[in-house]
Amino acid sequence: MELLGAELAPVVAFMLIGEIAVFAVFVCAWVLARLHKGRYHHYVMLAAFLTDELVFKPLMTLRALEVYGPYPWPGTNIAPHLWLDIGVTALGVATVVAAFRFRVKKKGNMFMPPKGRIHRLLGYLFISLWAATLVLGIRIFAGFYL
User: Fold this and answer.
1) Residue 85 exposed, middle or buried by CB count within 10 Å (0-12, 13-18, 19+)
2) Residues whose CB falls within 8 Å of the CB of residue 55, separated by 6 or more in sequence, listed in order
């Protein structure tokens, strides 16, 4: 399959496009939160996070093990990306836990009270670091394929 002028395995193209789509969904969920659409923000963010963790991360791991064998992979600069990704996953879990801990439901609406600021701060940090992980991943992709 050809993408961006490079010949790729279909699974690589799927992972690249999928991760960019997950980031777009994260941004949409963030906008929903800023618009005070808590319930929609909650479900969209949770769906994007779970899709990333249960679909794309396992695919990337399996692909790396299939192509390069057991870690560490000689000649690759993947260690910073890998460690950042592990940290972002842990931060994402902490953000989800804080969301469930501090949310308030009233008359079918969901919102964050003032003490839920920790969730907001974790969320900003999560989105920022997740974007950094995506940029590092695209850099690694470009180094291999472009």
Assistant:
1) buried
2) 18
User: For the chain, what is the domain count?
Assistant: 1
Question: How many CB atoms lie under 10 A from the CB of residue 70?
Answer: 7
Sign of CA dihedral 39, 40, 43, 45: negative
pTM: 0.83
CB burial readout 90-117, b (16+ within 10 A) else e: ebbeebbebbeebbeeeeeebbbeeebe
pLDDT tens track for 103-134: 777 777 776 777 788 888 999 999 999 999 99
Domain extent, residue 8, equals 2-145
